[in-house]
Amino acid sequence: MPITDTAKEKHKNRLSRALGHLNAIYRMVDEQRYCVDVIHQIKAVQAALDRVSEEILREHLETCVVEAIHNQDETRMIEELMQVFRKAPQLYSLEGASQPQEASAAESSPASSAHKTSPVHKPTKGCCS
User: Fold this and answer.
1) What is the DSSP letter of 99?
2) pLDDT tens-place string over residues 49-104
3) In angstroms, rounded to a whole number, what is the distance separating the alpha carbons of residues 7 and 1?
């Protein structure tokens, strides 16, 4: 079963926000912003993408996997899930699970959050060169 229309819109909205955030990070790099600030923004986007991935996996488990079990196709489904977990081990690791506050940071306004600078250190041009 493919992604439903309702889920599709929800996922597209989340991905659109992450894409906007990623474009803001691209601008930060172009503007030679402070390295640690860029890294923090990258981590926020990664957390947002992890959240979308987790949601899609949950929907897959609730629909496709259940259907495969009812159709006695467990072997194929188990192999498919093992491939998913090999490629994304954070999906089953408690340490790799994204925190709600990280995901929400990436889903906030990309322009405003991506252009904040570290309060501890004022960046100097070429700090990492």
Assistant:
1) P
2) 999 999 999 999 899 899 998 999 989 999 988 998 888 877 766 554 444 444 44
3) 12
For 17-60, what is each residue's pLDDT tens digit?
A: 999 999 999 999 999 999 999 999 999 999 999 999 999 999 99
Nearest Cα to 105, choosing from 29, 58, 46? Answer: 46
Longest Cα–Cα distance in the chain: 62
What span, in angstroms and rounded, lies between the C-alpha atoms of 46 and 62?
Answer: 24
**Residue 106: how many CB atoms within 10 A of its CB?**
27
**Structural tokens at position 103:** 């995901």
Structure token pair of residue 18: 């992450």
Cβ-proximal residues to 17 (8 Å cutoff; 6+ apart), any chain: 48, 106, 107, 110
pTM value is 0.68
Residue with tokens 């081990």: 89
Reduced to 3 states (helix: H, G, I; strand: E, B; else coil), residue 75 is helix
- What are the structure tokens assigned to 89, written together? 């081990």
